[in-house]
Amino acid sequence: MAGYSNGNGVTSPIGSMSRRMTGKNANRYSVSAMYSMAAEQDTELEDDLSRAQKRLRELKSRISAVSKKNFVLERDVRYLDQRISLLIQNKMALEERRDIETRLDDVEEEEGHYPDERKLTLYSNLFFLLQHEPRHIALLCRLISLSQVDSLLQTVMFTLYGNQYESREEHLLLTMFQIVLSHQFDTSTDFGNLLRANTPVSRMMTTYTRRGPGQSYLKSVLAERINSLIEHRELNLEINPVKVYEQMVSQFEDENNGELPEGMAKVVTPEEAAENPDVQAIIAPRLTMLMEIANSFLHTIIDSLETVPYGIRWICKQIKSLSKRRFPDASDTAICSLIGGFFFLRFINPAVVTPQSYMLVDATPAKHPRRTLTLIAKMLQNLANKPSYAKEQYMITLNPFVENNKTRINQFLNNLCEVSDFYDTLEMDQYMALSKKDLQINITINEMYNTHALLGQHLDQMAPSEKAHLRILLEDLGQAPDQVSRKENRTMELPLFSRWEVPIQDLTTAFAGEGNVTHSDILYMEAKSIFVNLIRSIPGSNDKLPIDLEALAERAATTKDAALVRKGIKVKEMLRELVEANILDRADGYRLMQEEVAAELVHLGNLRDKVLLETRSLDAVYRNISDHNDYLKQQLEQYKAYLQNVRKSSGNDKSSTGVGVITVGGKEKKPAKATVQGPYRFTHAQLEKEGIIVESNVPEARRPNIYFNITSPSPGAFIIALHYKGREKAILEMDLKIDDLLEKHKDNKNLLDLEYVQLNVPKVLALLNKVFTRRKN
């Protein structure tokens, strides 16, 4: 891309930009844009706009930090889900248990490991190069294995380009995507399977959709629809004939003491189930209702076009553009199918199928709504596919939905691609970045070392030339150090700067070297920028219009603020020079400058309103991802509770408290005799308020007299007893084992039926962990 170093030399971004623009007006516009950006980003000012921008920057920084934590937590939860399931089945080796323990231990960062000053300088140079020239990361993403991609994605998405709402980093990240996608299209021979396989590229695209803007969009568009649907807990819209037949059989058995009507088989083939008249009668109205619900989802998504995050739309645009270039014979519907594969398969549908993972709902949906959401996602995916197909035979009965909406969805997918490019803006952002002295990223020691190791592993493919900047830096760094322990894996602020790029000290000096930009243009734009700065710095200076520029300069030059005095004296001299150059006329009060300064102030006023509006929007995003962070931490707490008991059963923990006992490998060791804990008492109202009671059949009038006693007779075993005030004996008692609860949770069976009440399994686990694990003798 124009304006980027090729690795062996430096190309001036402003130089390449000026060469693309012809005529004085174009050159003057680019200079004006630079000075406007500088004025907007002036951090020394303290007016309403600067304060609003500061708060917005802090909010964006917090969102980026929590997003990164969530990515790491989700990765750990995903890993532990798999490992805990083996633990439940008593198949985990001791080394694997120790691996889990290291992931779950609470660790405080401590001083310890820290690269020396020379190494830190080299890492600063390296990560500046990687951020500034996205082609390096794009190539690395193609070379690494699928098992290495998650750790690299953490660094790329949430560290290197971690400021998700800052245009420069976002546009650099999208440039990296463009390079990766371009290679994917150039090397693919099968149009139909493009972007559908589980590859580092497809994992990258999915991870990108999970960043703040994507999460915010999903919540605003899908949350209301999904919550409205899951309120109908008993609404069964199953249309798979085999499952419908099985449900019929189960209902008959329940109603007739296990007996089935004469001639009704207990098990039938899919074909027999589909031809059964009773099954057909049950399915027919469900099909109509499913299509109505799917239509409402589709209508909401299509209406949300203008709120789809820019980055998502821009990736869709690249998919369309690359498809036409690489596969010129591909039909419009086939290209739309490819776009839909990204937008629906990797963005919309995961949130529809598992809304609890995207914080769109408060708890895991009940069985029937969960199945309905899965069917809706299948319908949307079938609609986006071309040729339209359904993997399951029974889904063909929903083809009317696909046929009726094919034109609408293709139009929507084409409209998604109608967004402008950002190359000129990026060049200006890159140029401005060179003038910043505070360019930095927050990165962990292990992220630095892991990226270093991956680059070193593929250095010959990435930088074959001895003069390539990447090779020079990596050779100076030497072999990548080993990963450090969690205690030493501290997060640090790494300043970014280049060994080869010369920092820009002053915009005016920098522009003066550009042959296509006149001295008068630079003088005019700098004077305008200073006047805007003075008005923002001096209260009441723009109360009277038109603004008296001479008086404003004099007022600044005579204040007690040394910085304002320098600016006032400087701008007075600039006005004199501009009059001598016949660009401004003192007789008309410098009218041309007055008008442009006034227009800039209007722009800044509008900018302040936009900043405040964006802040309100991002406040909601921050609350959402913070809630998700709490949810993920709660999941890890449950794993901690479980692991504590594995440690105990293996002789690693001599304490007598805990919430579960599992024998894992080797000989079983008899734990020390446990002390009975409890009972601990909870009222019906308490458990209902905490969301532990999901549904209650206890009459409202009697609920104040209901309470629950929870006792742990031994680690991992519990008794929940339901009592009525005044009665000595419990109305109902249930024995529970912690591993049964964990297995239920793992299988998404998140309801525990106590006859009179239904309990939320994850919240029951959290309660047991809170009450019994932390109350040690």
UniProtKB/TrEMBL annotation:
Listed InterPro entries: RasGAP_C, RasGAP_CS, RasGAP_dom, Rho_GTPase_activation_prot
Gene3D superfamilies referenced in this protein's UniProt entry, alphabetically: GTPase Activation - p120gap, domain 1
Pfam family, one: RasGAP_C
Polar residues bias (residue ranges): 1-15
Ranges for domain Ras-GAP: 168-385
GO BP terms: negative regulation of Ras protein signal transduction
Keyword hit for Methyltransferase: no
CDD domains, A to Z: RasGAP_GAPA (cd05132)
GO cellular component, one term: cell cortex
Keyword Coiled coil tagged: yes
Domain of life: Eukaryota
A GO MF term: GTPase activator activity
Residue numbers spanned by region Disordered: 1-21
Keyword annotations from UniProtKB, A to Z: Coiled coil
Residue ranges the record marks as coiled coil: 42-110
Entry-linked SMART domains: RasGAP
UniProt name for this protein: Ras GTPase-activating protein
Lineage: Eukaryota, Fungi, Dikarya, Basidiomycota, Agaricomycotina
